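Sync notes, pocket subgroup
Present: LS, DG
LS reminded everyone that the earlier model was apo-only. Rerun requested with flavin-adenine dinucleotide included. Inputs:
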Amino acid sequence: MDVGLVNNSQGTAMLSRRPRRLAYQTATASVLWTVAIANVVVIVWLWLSGGGISAVHGLGDFNTSVGRVTGLLSAYLALIQVLLLARLPWLERLVGFDRLTVWHRLNGKVCLILVLAHVVFITVGYAAMDKIAIPAEVSRLLDSYPGMVAATIGTGLMIAVVITSLVIVRRRLQYEAWYAVHLTAYAGIALAWVHQVPTGNELTANVAASNYWTALYVVTLALLVFCRLAVPIFHAFWYGMRVAEVTAESPNVVSLRITGRNLNRLKVRPGQFFLWRFLGRGRWWASHPFSLSAAPDGRSLRITVKKVGDFTSRIDEIAPGTRVVAEGPFGVFTDAVRRRNRVLLVAGGIGITPIRAMLEDMSGDLAFIYRVLRESDLVFRDELDQLARDRGIALHYLVGDHIGQAGEHLMSPAHLRRLVPDIIEREIYVCGPPAMMQFIEKSLRDADVPRKHIHTERFAL
Ligand SMILES: Cc1cc2nc3c(=O)[nH]c(=O)nc-3n(C[C@H](O)[C@H](O)[C@H](O)COP(=O)(O)OP(=O)(O)OC[C@H]3O[C@@H](n4cnc5c(N)ncnc54)[C@H](O)[C@@H]3O)c2cc1C
């Protein structure tokens, strides 16, 4: 532990709060893991007590039994899938929005594999028990089993969601199209409930299991509605946010200052982001993530947006007075995860936004690298120069493609060590577009910075 590095009272206070925060996070993580694993145990126990192993006497029974347990586990993972992105505040604070998105992607794939295994094992098992061919069994299941049509549509929707999320497909899709397909997953889960609870063979005969599964679905739905609907609606009225000012920072970067009521009650840290929804014509239906680009002062919030696509290219058309709904704050890219007094902040392009806010607020020995391709991409230059002067921050602007004006390989491990000689003793925060981040993270690792001291925010979910 680097407590010995602390050289000011703010830094000491920050590090002394850390054990309490760590204890809270460990306790929350333990509770969440216990609940998640306990549910798996109950699900497997219900399957066992329903004859999952004891009633297996042949290959047909075996396949059917495996089909049942994979179906039950896939239903459970589908509920976890919803909860991972239900914006549960304690989960968000513990794991962070971007890591939850990664887990969501992984969990979605495992869930689909289990669904497909369920379909295959059940069909093969039933066909063996009915002593008919598989195509005949498929048609029999669809014709005579209640809930089978719902299950088939639900499975189709889940397959569509996973396929459109594969990197190669998603790159070719508009975000809005991808998101619309994703929304149908909720319909898929509702159809899975119809297949499983009121009509499923396993649960119609077992009241305890049926009640247990109903409770799982109801709790998931309640948390989803509360966190994704009730809380944002309440916040919209409570904070009454509106756009107060729209300012051009450069030809393709615009800042919006947002005012409202009770903003001093908002628990937000520099480095965090919100999902912003602007209630104007043609915009109200989509929310977009933007980080705060200035430390919150209790009266207003500032975001700064680069024009890159459909929504952002028209951001400067938003009129002052437009109502705003902000979901959040989200993200663990803040001073709270810091362990060391010495810090290096690295911004790539528009990744400057959360870093600009953090520079205003962070204590300790700060160094800062701002990496852009062209001089015209540098925003907040006057503000940054002023902050550097006022707070004694070592500031480096790096402009150019890969080779800098002095012929150096920009951001190579050797270049980083030259710019910041004590780099391996610093806590490092990096934010920027995904491709730039990948390169910077590799250089930092090659410069021997331990992974645990590198904190990142990717501008992509
Ligand atoms: C945590 C986080 C913080 C961000 N902070 C900033 C910031 O401070 N300033 C800034 O300029 N940009 C920021 N971004 C990026 C910004 O959200 C996107 O550039 C913007 O949403 C693009 O919208 P578009 O319709 O104009 O572009 P499009 O061309 O439609 O999309 C470009 C890319 O942006 C992403 N995207 C598009 N719409 C959404 C959406 N509704 N929700 C999530 N992602 C979407 C997709 O990955 C897409 O491939 C941040 C992104 C994230 C994930």
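DG: DSSP finds 14 helices and eleven strands in the chain.
LS: Residues 15 and 376 are 38 Å apart (CA to CA).
Action: DG to write up.
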